[in-house]
Design goal:
Chain A: Pfam families: SpoVAD. Chain A: This is Stage V sporulation protein AD. Chain A: It comes from Alicyclobacillus sendaiensis PA2. Chain A: InterPro entries: SpoVAD, SpoVAD_sf, Thiolase-like. The complex is a heterodimer of chains A (about 350) and B (about 150). Chain A has about 350 residues and is an alpha/beta fold. Chain A has 2 domains: about 1-175, Peroxisomal Thiolase, Chain A, domain 1, CATH 3.40.47; about 180-340, Peroxisomal Thiolase, Chain A, domain 1 (3-Layer(aba) Sandwich). Chain A has helices spanning about 25-30, 50-70, 90-95, 115-125, 140-150, 200-220, 235-250, 255-260, 265-270, 285-300, 320-325, and strands at about 1-5, 10, 15-25, 40, 80-85, 105, 130-140, 165, 170-175, 180-185, 230-235, 265, 280-285, 305-315, 330-340. In chain A, strands 1, 2, 3, 4, 5, 6, 7, 9, 10, 11, 12, 14 and 15 form a 13-stranded mixed beta sheet that branches. Chain A has a two-stranded parallel ribbon with strand order 8-13. In chain A, helix 3 (about 90-95) links the parallel strand 5 (about 80-85) and strand 6. The longest helix of chain A is centred in the middle third of the chain and has 20 residues, at about 200-220. The radius of gyration of chain A is 18 Å and the shape is globular. The relative contact order of chain A is 0.19. Chain B is mainly alpha-helical. Chain B has one domain. Chain B has 8 helices and no strands. Chain B has helices at about 5-20, 25-55, 60-80, 80-90, 90-95, 95-110, 115-125, 130-150. The radius of gyration of chain B is 21 Å and the shape is extended. The chains are: A alpha/beta (about 350), B mainly alpha (about 150). At the A-B interface, helix 6 and helix 7 of A face helix 1, helix 4, helix 5 and helix 6 of B.
């Protein structure tokens, strides 16, 4: 356990393990290219609840239950629960996981909350303040639309840069020692603000944050892009991913071929671009969670990926700040994973 | 680097513009023209029907016509069709009175979960409120100008 450079926590190669994960995917996500990656695929985004908010809370709770089942632990064995969502006051996390009745820490970095949660959870495990930590996020297109934009049935024409908030939830159980996946590093991001104002251009707003955190991570660890089999950002979408790859090439951090091959984005991966109304791709706090825990961790199990860097990206706007014409500050936190054995 | 200087911002935004697909303005305009026109055409047909079969005078048939269009848009909003139609039609579906109906219906549906009074009552005009406020305010000033001009 040591700090590397300016903002990277080296957790040690055999210190913090992910022992189980869970994913609950909404209907459109379950019809996408990663359809066979999820533990639970819903055919009703309302999951029998009387509001979208309760639906999201239910998804979060199911994700937590499945993660515990797969880790073969009871909720009472969890020492700490860390997580977040996009709703004001983190209601999906707190209200959804209320029945667990375990010590809880809610975190918010918008759609980068997964990596913030993983960093805090890893810290707790590495320092010995907790032996077993449950960490997760959720998001729902209908709760996010109404909080950040318009009523869901309101007929507004979205531009090609728009993104669709991912509906779903995911969680992981972290424990000390060795497991199928190790958490090796966490790099804590800084705010990046390049003056993008349009809430329809989240990819453009967040790409500099992902770039900055990736560059900081590589500088702190002395690694290069080639040391990773894959670097994924959270939810830049196809447009934001194109901008990030361009920045990497422009700054000499990757050749065009390497940027194309080694750098991808969860928001670009979760939907097929021909799915209805997904536009530039997915976004939301569950976007990186579903793709990482559902798809990428399976790729690691199959041995196709050995070392993975996840740079979840968050746009730190509120409806008030957007309406007041403020620019959109963004943040990205990176978590490095390695295949266990 | 993260808090960018004005030069860095300008350079970055130029890169963003270069890599961002633009809104298909020509296609959107053409669709808005056709769809907006067709909705008005539908309104005209309904109005003629009210005059021919409903016993309304041409000057009075406007109100029931608007009511029918509002009802149709509310129904299509409720069954989840209107927002998809609007993504295709753009301003063509937003500008006619059907768009106004959609703003109210969608807000009412969205906030149903917070109850009838605080939810539906308190939020029904959330999206359409500005239209009413500035519609009334501009009508007042236009009427004032006309009054002044006529009495000069």
């Amino acid at each position: 356990m040591a700090r590397l450079g300016r903002s990277t926590w080296a957790l040690g190669e055999r210190q913090v393990a992910v022992i189980a994960t869970s994913t609950v995917a909404g209907t459109l996500e379950a019809q996408g290219p990663l359809s066979d990656s999820f533990d639970l695929s819903l055919n009703d985004d309302r999951v029998g609840q009387d509001s979208w908010e309760r639906a999201e809370q239910t998804m979060f709770r199911r994700a937590a239950e499945i993660a515990c089942e797969k880790a073969a632990i009871r909720p009472n064995d969890v020492d700490l629960v860390v997580g977040g969502d996009l709703n004001a006051q983190l209601t999906s996390f707190y209200l959804g996981l209320r029945p667990l009745a375990r010590p809880m820490l809610g975190v918010y970095s918008a759609c980068a909350s997964l990596c913030e949660g993983l960093a805090v959870a890893s810290l707790a495990v590495a320092t010995g303040f907790a032996d077993v930590v449950l960490v997760g996020t959720s998001s729902h297109t209908s709760t996010a639309e109404r909080q950040f934009r318009y009523p869901t049935e309101y007929g507004v024409q979205r531009p090609p840069t728009a993104q669709r908030t991912v509906t779903g939830a995911g969680a992981a159980v972290l424990a000390r020692g060795r497991g199928p996946w190790q958490v090796t590093h966490a790099t804590i991001g800084e705010i990046a603000d390049f003056g993008v104002k349009s809430p329809w251009e989240m990819g453009a707003a967040m790409a500099p944050a992902a770039f900055d955190t990736l560059r900081q991570h590589l500088a702190d660890t002395g690694r290069s892009l080639d040391d990773y089999d894959l670097v994924v950002t959270g939810d830049l979408g196809r447009v934001g991913l194109r901008i990030l790859r361009n920045l990497l090439v422009e700054h000499g951090m990757a050749s065009p071929a390497a940027a194309e091959e080694r750098v991808n984005d969860c928001g670009a991966m979760i939907y097929d671009e021909h799915q209805p109304e997904v536009f530039s791709g997915g976004s939301g706090a569950a976007c990186s969670t579903l793709v990482t825990f559902g798809h990428l961790f399976r790729e690691m199990e199959r041995g196709r990926l050995h070392r993975l860097l996840v740079c979840a990206t968050g746009a730190l706007l509120s409806q008030v700040s957007a309406q007041q014409g403020d620019t959109i500050p963004s943040i990205s936190h990176a978590i490095a994973f390695e295949r266990g054995d | 680097m993260p808090i960018a200087t004005p030069e860095e911002r300008a350079r970055y935004q130029a890169l963003v513009r270069r890599l961002t697909p633009g809104r298909p303005v020509v296609r959107n305009t053409a669709r808005a023209f056709v769809v907006g026109g067709l909705i008005c055409e539908l309104g005209q047909v309904i109005q003629v029907l009210f005059v021919r079969y409903g016993g309304f005078k041409p000057t009075e048939a406007g109100n029931p016509t608007v009511a029918v269009l509002i009802l149709l848009a509310a129904i299509f909003t409720a069954i989840g069709v209107y927002d998809r139609f609007a993504q295709w039609a753009g301003a063509g579906s937003a500008v006619p009175v059907t768009g106004f109906s959609n703003t109210m219906t969608s807000a009412a549906m969205e906030h149903r979960s917070e109850g009838f009074v605080a939810g539906i009552g308190g939020n029904m005009f959330k999206v359409s409120g500005p239209v009413i406020v500035y519609g009334v305010v501009s009508a007042f000033f236009i009427a004032l100008i006309r009054y002044v001009l006529e009495h000069l």
